[in-house]
Amino acid sequence: MSHFIKTVILGIVLLLTGVTRNASATVIYSSDFSSGAGMEWSVNSTAFKNGEYFLADSVYGFGNGTNTLSLTLLPSHNLVTVSFDLYIIQSWDGNGQWGGGADNWQLTSDGGNIFYTNFANYGNGNTQAYTNQLPTYGSGGTFQPRTGAYGSGHLGYGMGDWGDTTYRFSFTYAHSAPTINLAFTSFQNQGASDEGWGLDNVSVSISPDTSSVPEPSSWLLLASGCFGLLAKAWRKTT
Ligand SMILES: [Ca+2]
Ligand SMILES: [Ca+2]
User: Which end of the chain has less Cβ packing within 10 Å, N or C?
Assistant: First the structure.
């Protein structure tokens, strides 16, 4: 094989590798909390229940309040993906008639809303907004408790009114700042031994906007050009 053909083949390989690398995401934070939580969390206590480590200040989960994940020195990026499991523990009331008003829960990124809804475990006529998000006005929806859940009873509280529910979420959105503050907030209106929450399997990844990657049609054109050169070189050597 001639040196020229080898060079063209190498060029094609590098081109395709470059496209793949540009499109891939980079994980900048990931934890299942089996080794605790670090100072990147404003509240970094972890709990252990039914064989599972998770982010919460007791086995009943956090009460009403915010836990913020702050990450700095992010490499250049255009998109961020935030993924996590949310444990809704014991008798959350959603937007139903019991429990003193809506038990809302929100994720914001640098102060901007990403996800805002409410959840119910306690039945007896209660409903929840999720799988909808909360609008400016209105209840958001009248779904049955646990609608859209990833699992129930994982933390050992069971599947009844005082059980626990796991929701698995992933949100991807435009973000390019070198720092990020993710605020996870519960607006629940009863104590943590009555209704609580925790986080698990939290990961944050960044990636370039796909618009920075050449369109498939353009890199196919580039590749076909390379193949043309290759064919020309092949004819010369035969
Ligand atoms: Ca865990
Ligand atoms: Ca409540």
Answer: C
Which protein residues have their CB within 5 A of the ion that is ligand 2? 93, 99, 103, 189-190
Q: Which ligand is nearest to the CA of 200?
A: 1
In the predicted model, what is the mean pLDDT of residues 185-196? Answer: 95
Residue 130 to residue 218: CA distance in whole angstroms: 42
Q: How far is the CA of 27 from the centre of ligand 2 (A)?
A: 36
Break the chain into its structural domains and give their ranges.
Answer: 1-24+214-238, 32-207
Residue 72's pLDDT band (cuts 50, 70, 90) = very high
Ligand 1 centroid – CA 17 distance (Å): 35
Residue 31 Cα, ligand 2 centroid: separation in angstroms? 29
The structure's pTM equals 0.80
Q: Which CATH number fits domain 32-207: 2.60.120, 2.40.50, 2.60.40, 3.60.21?
A: 2.60.120
Other C-beta atoms lying within 10 Å of the C-beta of residue 228 = 11
